[in-house]
Design brief:
Blueprint lengths: L4 E5 L6 H12 L1 E5 L18 H6 L2 E2 L12 H17 L3 E6 L2 H9 L9 H10 L3 H11 L1 H4 L7 H14 L3 H7 L10 E5 L3 H18 L1 H12 L12 H7 L5 H26 L4 E3 L1 H13 L2
Parallel strand pairs: 1-4, 1-5, 2-3, 2-4, 5-6
Helix pairs in contact: 1-14, 5-8, 6-8, 10-13, 12-13
Length: 301
């Protein structure tokens, strides 16, 4: 069997997971989730993670990998993809990449630039500079205003990355990336996008928010806050922030649920714009038509 892989993208609550499972069962495939929340253990209701039955129906990767206070980046995701690809080929399985965090998919199709080799002394020097984040940012801004103008002065991850590049290579980040352009991880990939109207999406988001509440949303967020505090990046996610406002008595229950629906719909709009503008030659169709479109292409090639 020749190995086949494809991607299914679409806004949150558009039906990606259900479609991916149906397709995976027909084409004997594993599923790699590209969802920035499902990767975390214990964030189950907020992330609208597939059920245990669904996870058992098809082998999934990229779900329940890390605890919410663990560090995660697109570099880690790329390494995960390479591991999953190896396992698929070893076990003679195809692969479906599915999820709402399309930036991860873009990183696979366009690649990331290699970073210079970092010695322990360089790492220690950078850590010392990062103790004054604002000073480190100003230093880099003077050094490379083009690159740093796109980075927030509070973005400690990217500031650290820029410092490491400079200290290890003695090149500005702009110079480094010009000399080390990104290499695509996946050269060819069929990408299928779920085309859904805003009205239908808003209705689905509303229903999903009500379902999350009924499943124990408030208890889950309370547990996460108690166990991990509010510090981890994951605790700033839609669904968690609004519940924390409710727990702080800044919003009533109905306001909390309305805010989750509104913010999720805003996210869905951003996702639709990203998917439409960042990928070329994607195949867009309504959810009810996409299964046949994908299977006709996959099973006859």
């Amino acid at each position: 069997m020749s190995f086949k892989q494809l991607a299914i993208i679409g806004p949150t609550a558009s039906g990606k997971s259900d479609l991916a499972i149906k397709i995976a069962q027909r084409m004997d495939a594993y599923i790699l989730s590209i969802d920035s929340l499902s990767i975390y253990k214990e964030i189950d209701i907020v992330s609208a993670k597939p059920s245990k039955e669904e996870l058992n129906a098809v082998k999934h990767f990229g779900i329940d990998l890390l605890y919410p206070d663990a560090y995660f980046s697109v570099d880690i995701f790329i390494d995960l993809y390479k591991t999953v690809l190896h396992e698929c080929k070893k076990e003679n399985k195809n692969l479906i990449i599915v999820g709402g965090t399309s930036f991860y998919l873009k990183s696979l199709t366009e690649g990331l630039s290699e970073l210079p080799s970092i010695e322990i002394q360089t790492q220690q020097k950078v850590e010392k500079k990062l103790q004054n984040l604002q000073k480190a940012y100003r230093f880099l801004l003077d050094l490379d205003s083009v690159y740093m103008s796109k980075i927030s002065q509070n973005d400690s991850y990217r500031i650290e990355k820029a410092l490491l590049i400079f200290e290890a290579s003695k090149l500005t980040p702009t110079q480094w990336f010009e000399q080390n352009p990104p290499q695509a991880i996946i050269k060819e990939l069929d990408i299928y996008n779920i085309d859904v109207s805003r009205d239908i999406l808003r209705q689905r988001i509303h229903q999903r928010t009500q379902k999350m509440y009924a499943m124990g949303l408030i208890d889950e967020v309370s547990m996460l806050e108690h166990k991990y505090t509010r510090s981890p990046h994951a605790m700033n996610s839609i669904g968690i922030v609004e519940v924390l406002e409710y727990l702080d008595a800044k919003a009533k229950k109905e306001e909390m649920l309305e805010n989750i629906s509104i913010h999720t719909a805003q996210l869905a709009k951003r996702q639709q714009t990203f998917n439409r503008t960042q990928f070329q030659n994607i195949i867009s169709a309504k959810l009810e038509d996409l299964e046949d479109i994908i299977l006709r292409k996959v099973l006859h090639t």
